[in-house]
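During the reporting period the student researcher (J.K.) took over the structure-prediction task from the postdoctoral fellow and processed the backlog of single-chain submissions. One of the processed entries is reproduced below for the supervisory committee.
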Amino acid sequence: MPTITPSDGVNDVKDLLSGLDVIDDADVLESLSHDDAEWAPYGKALAAVRPRTTEDVRRVVAACAERNVPIVPRGAGTGLSGGANAVDGAVILDLSRMNRIVEIDADNLTVTVQPGVINNDLKAAVAQHGLWYPPDPASAPWSTIGGNVSTNAGGLCCLKYGVTRDYVLGLEAVVGGPAGEYGTVVRLGRRTTKGVSGYDLAGLFTGSEGTFGVITEITLRLRPARREAPRTVVGAFASVVAAGEAVAAITRAGLLPAALELLDRTCLRAVEDWKHLGLEADAAALLLAQLDAPGRAGDEEATAVAEVFRAAGAIWAEQSTDEIEAEALFAARRLAYPALERLGPVLTEDVCVPRSRVPEMLASIEEIAARHGTTIATIAHAGDGNLHPLILAPPGDENARRAAQAAFDDLLTAAIAMGGTVTGEHGVGLLKRAGMRQELSAGVLAMQVAVKQTLDPLNLFNPGKVVG
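J.K. obtained the following structure tokens:
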């Protein structure tokens, strides 16, 4: 099979894809060639295509397979692991214009969407039908459902309500390999609540980061909308480790908040300096708990959480009775990453440890920061053990960059040693490949390679990611 070369490649791709929106402008290609992962390498793409339909995607995949051209799918580019980064000579499939909500089925509590639908736009659309889509990554105002599915994104509510995979019922995808010629359209999964007819291929594609094919449609399960506004309990702590102890105590007490989030002082101050939300950033860490049991049960749950915070050593712990104040606190959690990014490059971690090990992992973060002379701010979906240490480096400081990368590697090692994982929701992409090889056994890695080779024997779909 001939390999396309840059000298004739652009014109050849345009000929094969006549009638589609093919982009070869250098500046636009540069902007589409990488996600938000700091220092993740990316190559020079041949062209980009903005499809609008499954047939458009099918044509792109078939044409690229004919000329052995790699395909890199992307959504909004909000990823933090390099999973959407281009390789040399690739065609980028920018799926952002496949943004149609195909069907909201209120009777069966499902919604079917194209991959370019923005998470928050989906939430708003189903809310008009009295329904709720719970997965809510901090990037929800910008990230696409296709990207959320590709990384199995979690978010603030995953402690109680689960991650994206828990809501994916079925997929439509353009594939190759054993399904037939590259450019074959398949439907995976189902629209029913139950179904075990064969292997869970929709589950396999969820979290696969575009390495098995291109997702073109997604059917998601929904929940009835919550009947009343959640209650918010805030606890202030003298150290992040003390806040971690409170998280472990919440689990031991059998309490299950809808969300249990941690922000350290560095994050709080960065958000306050930027947005002036009126936050008090004196404590070393805040824990934000959101409780959504209805009526009196919700009041009792909120009281119990505040009592656990106090018993675990909180400086203070109170239920917020002001909805505006509560919203500001959770807005601060969502804004922490972009607020810190304003200060310079941020290398973002995504480790996850058993909940009982959260205090130990928080202590390790502090020790690693001190050892490498780095500043590490920490936000966390603390209730499910998913921590996001944010390693800061002044712009243009090469020594700081090297120290940040060394701290990044040590954080992965620490999480694995505690029985954790190197990525809870951001995906492997490029930045976590070495960590994944450290975490998984040789036998498991071989199985993953075998699946990739079976479903994509030409290695066209997002090559170099996950298994490499």
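The committee noted the following: The two ends are 22 Å apart (CA to CA).
J.K. will present the remaining backlog at the next meeting.
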